[in-house]
Specification:
By secondary structure, the protein is mainly beta. Among the domains are: about 80 residues, Sandwich (Immunoglobulin-like), CATH 2.60.40; about 130 residues, Ferric Hydroxamate Uptake Protein, Chain A, domain 1; about 170 residues, no CATH class. The protein is built from 9 helices and 51 strands. It has a 22-stranded antiparallel barrel. The chain has a 5-stranded mixed sheet with strand order 10-15-16-13-14. It has a 4-stranded antiparallel sheet with strand order 3-2-5-6, with no helix packed on it. A hairpin with a 4-residue loop joins β2 and β3. It is globular and about 110 Å long. The two termini are about 65 Å apart. It is found in: Cell outer membrane. It comes from Niabella ginsenosidivorans. Keywords: Cell outer membrane, Membrane, Signal, TonB box, Transmembrane, Transmembrane beta strand, Transport. InterPro entries: Beta-barrel_TonB, Beta-barrel_TonB_sf, CarboxyPept-like_regulatory, Plug_dom, Plug_dom_sf, TonB-dep_OMP_SusC/RagA, TonB-dep_OMP_SusC/RagA_CS, TonB-dep_rcpt-like. Belongs to the TonB-dependent receptor family.
Length: about 1000
């Protein structure tokens, strides 16, 4: 043993010597770093991790690095590429090919109507928004998920009312009298009314595909003039069943209120209640009337889905629940939803059967908008309750009542039932050729109950009503799809026959003077028989269509798409029932050309151009081409003594068999790009559209016409614009990522013509009144017009210059002087365009490890709103009839107002629409996965100079366009929302 010890020591010393020798030796590695196209990756990092020795590739991708002699691998990384460990077997030069970390979104599949296509193969203007990009937080209408996300699409919710319809406009105004919202298609079901989307559960939606230009929407022909929004709900995937749950709880608060005087300020300013019924007895209150009708409202939503499949069968089903109590007392929305989609493949996957069901029930508590007017005109010294705790009964000389019982005690509720059914069957009879059939049905029913009991101070009259409405559609379709490649030639052809049948009906019964209020409207015949009313209405029409489309591309470089749709509608006279709607578009993928293909910083580059024609008949209801008769009193008939008085009938509508489609045609030019290894991408669109044969109800003489108005095709308008959508990855890393995206849209709409003839009679108005100011002395005072040469709903107002020494308003007389309101005339007015110059949205997504922050900003520039509410309440004279604002008190304005440009205010704004902070825990056990918790805030702040409650109001339409009314759609206060949520999967 002693003899072996020196040997062990010697061997150990030799081992150490060998290790030190090996480590002290070095070797030099050379090579080149390229991408998958063979292009150099300059600046790529090459790192030997043990010694932390590193270098960077030069401009040609070449590198040289000296590493320890025992090095077996190096780490190669570059921004935009997947990091790789590259083995070293010697000192020979290395060729390292890095794979891109993220592909361009041009490879995404989008829905294009009657089929799908890769985004890079689409020649029209099509935008896609997926669920990961949706706006977060409490969503009362699904369209809020994409508000501000898509260039050219303006989605406006004028108030915080959870039951309010959202305004959707795509590339400007398209009609004078018809519906201007896009056609909405949910899983192939074409909704007869776009407002029905509010009954769809937002949690079930996974993608929105928006067809924007005429070349893309022409496949929907007579229904495509306003654009098309294609919505896809959740589908199943083969594999073990997975249960997903998403839930949120939160609350809404009133975001802002006017600076009305409190009780002390009101009294100090000389305010009285002498003009109130009750007089001086109303001096014991100190009431903030906005607070009296509003509350902090809880919100909650839950969605549970299960998906899976096996053996060619896949399915997804979900149950959803949403409750949003409105911030106004006794208002809100509660909704239950069921969504189910299934697919069965058979016969070697040649036979495919799809079935989808979406059923939703919404219970809505509506708001009486009169309360917002009463709140503004109510003295703060008037109490809500009297000494007994009952609602205080009072009224002033402008019929202003206690608003709290009006909203709290009234029954004003509806139950909406929306059912969407769709199914399809396809069979591939030969390679590439599929024949099939599809069908869908949509059923919408609304049952409304209303009852107003005897209210304190409102008189002794009560009233009740029941209203029922059905809006249904049925669609049948036969189709053929042919997809084939011949070498570098690729063809995708579609042929469709489609039959649509639409029905609408409603009925209403109402009465007054009931003996017992607790019965509400459940005994409508129990009141005064003389006050009972009953009414009903029904219409129906058919739309039959033939459509063909062919998409061709050569070598994924050159693309051509052409389509033709022929629509026939029973709405029109026999000679004008059919319309033809063609389109053609082409694209060139420059990034596939040899002269660009090897430019390393260009990943995708595509030029597109398209032209198309679409139609619109939404301005008309069925039978509007016909001469109609209506009841017009009674007449005495001596021949029937038992029934001496019979109903008399007379014409109620002039016939016009020459009515035809409104047609919109336009051209679009688009550039799509992805640069710098897909870190920077986007698209730019330039478009020019013209709508012809606008439908409008014109005044005509009587005689020779039976009544003094008639619907006719006369006007034209144009829409021209520029859209830019950009997305960029500022930071791409293993732990830190930051992406920034945004869009900006410039759209200019102009009325080109409003004059023409019908049967030799001039329809020659270039100046059609549209919107009206409301207030004392302002009834029937139009302030917006449809005027040739201007945007729709241009303002026509005098120029305000100040007050005289008596607190009365003065105006520019157009000759260098001033006049009072009594001397004003139309020659002193001027046209002012209120339309915004551009709209925009900015999205930020920042993540660090498992923590993420997403926030979205949305804005409008150049918008002007007429602040009718301020015009009413900024008045010292209100102190004898109600309340005023601190602004009005300081202004010295003592007179009833004139509608002038003083109240046309800059309404440009930048809104923090929503922000979400989330933490992804991931897998928590063998069965619980994808756990994520998040907190979201909506409408966090608004930067604006506008002096109203909120600058975002109804911006298009009639009667209240750009007019901020105290009793219109935007009167319900905007809410600021906060919510806490969780996502989890169970396997």
């Amino acid at each position: 043993m002693k003899n072996k010890t020196p040997r062990k020591i010697l061997l150990a010393l030799l081992g150490v010597f060998w290790a030190v020798s090996a480590f002290s030796q070095t070797k030099t590695i050379t090579g080149k770093v390229t991408d998958e196209k063979g292009m150099a990756v300059p600046g790529a990092s090459i790192l030997e991790k043990k010694s932390q020795t590193g270098t960077a590739a030069d401009a040609d991708g070449n590198f040289q690095i000296t590493v320890p002699g025992n090095t077996t691998s190096v780490e190669v990384s570059a921004i935009g590429f997947i990091t790789q460990n590259v083995a070293i077997s010697g000192t020979e030069p290395l060729t390292i090919v890095l794979k891109e970390e993220q592909k361009s979104d041009l490879n995404e599949v989008v829905v294009i109507g009657y089929g799908t296509a890769r985004k890079k193969d689409v020649t029209g203007a099509v935008a896609n928004v997926s669920s990961k990009e949706f706006n977060q937080g409490p969503i009362t209408n699904p369209m809020q998920q994409i508000a501000g996300k898509v260039s050219g699409v303006v989605i406006t919710q004028p108030s915080g009312d959870p039951n309010q319809n959202i305004s959707i406009r795509l590339r400007g105004q398209t009609s004078l009298a018809g519906n201007q919202a896009p056609l909405i298609v949910v899983d192939g079901v074409q909704l007869p009314d776009p407002n029905q989307i509010s009954s769809i559960s937002p949690a079930d939606i996974v993608t929105y595909d928006i067809l924007k230009d005429a070349s893309a929407t022409a496949i929907y022909g007579a229904r495509g003039a306003n654009g098309v929004i294609l919505i896809s709900t959740k589908k199943g995937a083969a594999g073990k069943a997975v249960i997903d749950y998403t839930g949120t709880i939160g609350f809404d608060k009133n975001a802002k209120k006017y600076d009305l005087l409190n009780a002390k300020e009101f009294t100090d300013a000389g305010g009285t209640t002498d003009n109130f019924a009750g007089g001086s007895t109303l001096r014991n209150g100190n009431t903030d009337w906005v607070d009296a009708i509003t509350r902090t409202a809880p919100t909650t939503s839950h969605n549970v889905g299960i998906s899976g499949g096996t053996g060619g069968f896949t399915y997804h089903g979900s149950l959803s629940y949403l409750k949003n109590e409105g911030i106004v007392i006794n208002s809100g929305k509660e909704m239950y939803g069921l969504n189910f989609n299934a697919q069965q493949k058979a016969l070697n996957n040649k036979l495919v059967i799809n079935l989808g069901i979406n059923a939703n029930r919404a219970i809505r508590k509506w708001t009486d908008f009169n309360i917002f007017y009463y709140v503004l005109q109510m003295a703060p010294i008037a109490p809500v309750y009297d000494s007994t705790g009952a609602y205080y009964a009072f009224r002033n000389d402008y019929d202003i009542y206690n608003p709290v019982p009006l909203q709290e005690m009234r029954l004003n509720q509806s139950r909406d039932q929306t059912n969407l059914w769709n199914g399809s069957i396809d069979y591939e009879i030969i390679d590439g050729l599929k024949l099939g059939a599809a069908g869908s049905m949509s059923f919408f029913n609304r049952q409304t109950d209303a009852y107003t009991p005897v209210l304190p101070g409102y008189g002794n009259i009560n009233s009740g009503s029941k209203y029922s409405e059905n809006n249904d559609s049925k669609r049948g379709e036969l189709h053929a799809f042919y997809v084939k490649s011949f070498g570098k030639h690729n063809i995708n052809a579609t042929g469709v026959y489609e039959y649509n049948y639409f029905t609408y009906d409603n009925s209403n019964a109402a009465g007054e003077n009931y003996l017992y209020d607790p019965n509400q409207n459940n005994n409508l015949g129990g009141g005064n028989p003389a006050k009972n009313t009953i009414a009903s209405y029904k219409n129906a029409y058919r739309l039959i269509s033939f459509m063909g489309r062919i998409m061709y591309n050569y070598d994924a470089r050159y693309y051509l798409t052409a389509s033709l749709r022929r629509d026939g509608s029973s709405k029109f006279g026999i000679n004008h029932q059919w319309g033809y709607f063609p389109s053609v578009s082409a694209a060139w993928r420059l990034s596939q050309e040899e002269f660009i293909k090897y430019i390393g910083w260009i990943n995708e580059l595509k030029l597109s151009a398209g032209w198309g024609r679409t139609g619109n008949s939404d301005a008309l209801t069925p039978y509007q081409t016909l001469l109609l008769l209506g009841g017009s009193g009674t007449f005495y008939n001596p021949a029937t003594p038992s029934f001496n008085y019979r109903t008399a009938y007379s014409p109620s509508q002039n016939a016009n068999p020459d009515l035809r489609w409104e047609t919109r045609q336009g051209a679009n030019f688009q550039l799509d790009f992805a640069l710098f290894r897909n870190r920077f991408s986007g698209n730019i669109n330039v478009f020019s559209d013209k709508t012809k044969d606008l439908l409008y109800n014109y005044t005509v003489p009587t005689p020779p016409f039976f009544v003094n108005n008639i619907w006719a095709n006369v006007g034209d308008l144009t829409n021209k614009g520029l859209e830019i959508q950009l997305n960029g990855d500022i930071i791409r890393g293993e732990q830190v990522n930051w992406s920034l995206g945004g869009q900006i849209s410039f759209v200019k709409t102009k009325v080109q013509s409003l004059a023409g003839t019908y049967n030799g009679y001039d329809l020659n108005t270039d100046h059609i009144p549209a919107g009206y100011a409301v207030g004392r002395g302002l009834s029937n005072s139009p302030i917006t017009y449809l005027q040739v040469g201007y945007s729709p709903y241009v303002f026509y107002l005098p120029h305000y210059v100040g007050l005289d020494d008596k607190g009365k308003e003065l105006f520019d007389d157009g000759k260098g002087g001033t006049v009072g309101k009594d001397a004003l005339n139309n020659d002193m007015k001027r046209y002012i365009d209120p339309a915004p110059k551009f709209t925009y949205g900015i999205n930020n997504s920042i993540s660090y490890k498992k923590l993420s922050l997403n926030f979205f900003l949305r804005g409008v520039s150049g918008l002007k709103n007429f602040n009718n509410t301020r015009m009413l309440i900024d008045n010292i004279g209100n102190l004898k009839n109600g309340n005023t604002t601190k602004t009005g008190l300081e202004s010295g304005d003592k007179d009833d107002k004139v509608a002038s440009d003083k109240w046309l205010q800059n309404a440009s704004f930048l809104r923090m629409d929503n922000a979400t902070l989330s933490y992804t825990i991931g897998k928590v056990s063998d069965h619980f996965d994808n756990l994520r918790v998040f907190v979201t805030g909506n409408n966090l702040f608004v930067i604006t100079k506008y002096k109203g409650l909120d600058p975002e109001i109804q911006v298009t339409g009639t009667n209240n366009s750009y007019i901020d009314m105290f009793n219109a759609d935007n009167a319900y206060y905007k809410a600021r929302s906060f919510s806490l949520g969780v996502n989890i999967s169970i396997k």
